[in-house]
UniProtKB/TrEMBL annotation:
Keywords: DNA-binding. Residues 1-61 form the HTH tetR-type domain. PANTHER family: ACREF/ENVCD OPERON REPRESSOR-RELATED, TRANSCRIPTIONAL REGULATORY PROTEIN. SUPFAM superfamilies: Homeodomain-like (SSF46689). It comes from Aliivibrio sifiae. This is TetR family transcriptional regulator. Residues 24-43 bind DNA. GO terms for molecular function: DNA binding.
Length: 214
């Protein structure tokens, strides 16, 4: 792995474990057993490292949340496809939990990063609408257009703010995988009242799956 990539991955590990505000570039260099000068050769400051981490995050958002197609035709969503999307949400929330936990502060320090975040979220929202439309077309949920848009926004808000909310609630306790799985269950609880009989059955199966991981 190239030194630049090692710095990004090492910083991500430290930020997730100790909180971004508690970690300096010297901590990162010591953790990777490289000199501060070597680190500064690749990144001028910690904000540039955070930008590098965010670029990886944004690329994952782009690839993980595309409406599924096969032979240029939309794939009708099933419980397995719903599980795939939910697991992708879990992976992102867990792997980049420092970012979710302290989002307003991080973005307030870097206007360029805030703009990149806004662009990434707008693109994600468009893809989420496409995904939810697929669920509606397949008969898993029954909603009017405005209701579907509102549901998509609610799910987007829950996934974006869950860790931040839990960080405030838990105070000095650590965010665990179980806490993130609770976020998955909360999203399913939001969708279940809008589900058809077929959709409700699949949602209950997914709820049982995530409850088994708590």
């Amino acid at each position: 792995m190239k030194t630049k990539d090692r710095i990004i991955h090492g910083a991500l590990e430290l930020f997730n474990k100790n909180g971004e505000r508690n970690i300096t570039t010297n901590h990162i260099a010591a953790y990777l057993e490289i000199s501060p000068g070597n680190l500064y050769y690749h990144f001028r400051n910690k904000e540039e490292i955070i930008n590098g981490i965010f670029d990886n995050y944004a690329q994952e958002l782009k690839t993980r949340f595309q409406p599924m197609v096969e032979n240029e035709q939309p794939v009708m969503p099933s419980a397995q496809i719903m599980l795939s999307y939910l697991d992708s949400i879990f992976v992102l929330m867990w792997n980049y939990r420092f970012f979710y936990a302290n989002l307003p502060d991080i973005l307030s320090r870097d206007f360029g990063l805030k703009q990149k975040y806004t662009n990434a979220q707008e693109s994600l929202n468009d893809n989420l609408i496409g995904i939810m439309n697929g669920f509606r077309t397949s008969g898993l949920i029954t909603l009017e257009d405005d209701e579907l848009l509102a549901l998509t926004k609610t799910l987007h808000l829950v996934s974006s703010c869950w860790i931040s909310y839990q960080t405030a609630q838990l105070s000095d306790k650590e965010i665990t995988e179980a806490v993130v799985y609770q976020g998955m269950l909360q999203m399913l609880n939001v969708v279940r009242p809008m589900a058809t009989e077929q959709g409700r059955k699949q949602i209950l199966e997914l709820e049982a799956h995530y409850k088994g991981r708590l």
